[in-house]
UniProtKB/TrEMBL annotation:
HAMAP family per record: Arch_DHQ_synthase
Membrane-spanning ranges: none
Domain named 3-dehydroquinate synthase C-terminal: residues: 160-335
InterPro entries: DHQS (IPR002812), DHQS/DOIS_N (IPR030960), DHQS_C (IPR056179)
One function term, GO molecular function aspect: oxidoreductase activity, acting on the CH-NH2 group of donors, NAD or NADP as acceptor
Keywords, in A-Z order: Amino-acid biosynthesis, Aromatic amino acid biosynthesis, NAD, Oxidoreductase
Its EC number(s): 1.4.1.-
Family: Belongs to the archaeal-type DHQ synthase family.
Domain 3-dehydroquinate synthase N-terminal: 10-146
Protein's name according to its UniProt entry: 3-dehydroquinate synthase homolog
GO biological process: amino acid biosynthetic process; aromatic amino acid family biosynthetic process
Amino acid sequence: MKKELIVAIENPEDKNVITAALESGVSAVLTTKEGISEKVKKLARVKTIAPDGDFKLGEEFVIVEIKGKEDEERAAQLLKQGKKVIVKTTDWTIIPLENLLAQGDEVYAWVRNSEEAKTALTILEKGVKGVVLETKDVNEIKATGQAISQAGEKVKLEVAKVKRVKPIGMCDRVCIDTCSNMTRGEGALVGNSSAGMFLVHAETESNPYVAARPFRVNAGAVHMYVRLPGGKTKYLAEIESGDEIMIYNYKGEGRIAYVGRAKVEKRPMLLIEAETKEGKKVSGILQNAETIRLTRPDGTPISVVELKEGDEVLVYTEEPGRHFGMKVKESIVEK
């Protein structure tokens, strides 16, 4: 689930706060006063939550101040009615948030700093959908924005041993250039099947012939799946500018990256097959070039041209079954 940062303001003249919010990836600006929404919109293209905003405060979004059990029960009822509930507590505590998260996903936490935000984003592992930050401290806004950007999904990566590497000739392959730089140990999950995906390492490494391109994942053949936010997948052929994909590190910690460009070019390719110790099979078709790498269990990259039988690489597996990229339960065999 993509997390949201909402910044609460009361003074549209406080341009430093609004600018910091926009630069930190704010989803919306919230104000309880009428007449401020349009003033905020003159500064930038941003959604507003207000009595006269894009999202109506008191209708779509409702603030509930928790002082006792009755307030918590009211918040739970609002969640059942499909409202987005912003939980505000007098002595910031996580117990009401835990109780409400067990009853619905549209829970937001009113916080005063980045540390409170980090806690709210990890409650019951899944965390709140977003935080409403009330502060005039520009540094806290930026720190909270960074916490939001890093609050992604976590998956359990497994170790698989390479079983076969076979050149298969020319294919159409997709190279994904994201709008974010990646570091060693990070990449995208791609595979011939959504049930088995390799952690294909970003092009963070340089060599005497090619400079590093840390924003790039040379993802593989057009038919393969790539993992998106929310556990969804998409064919590489369908990826285009503005799309969101998930970037994971070797620990399985994920974050969202936006696609700047997806290039489809004909290149010589390799079929790579691997198997986990539980016998789950993973396969993918990647470009036959030194700069394309998989990821070892310790996070170091290994080039596909160096792969040999028995090498250990990181993979992600799940039960097969997808319909338009959504996980479904069905009997399916992919070969």
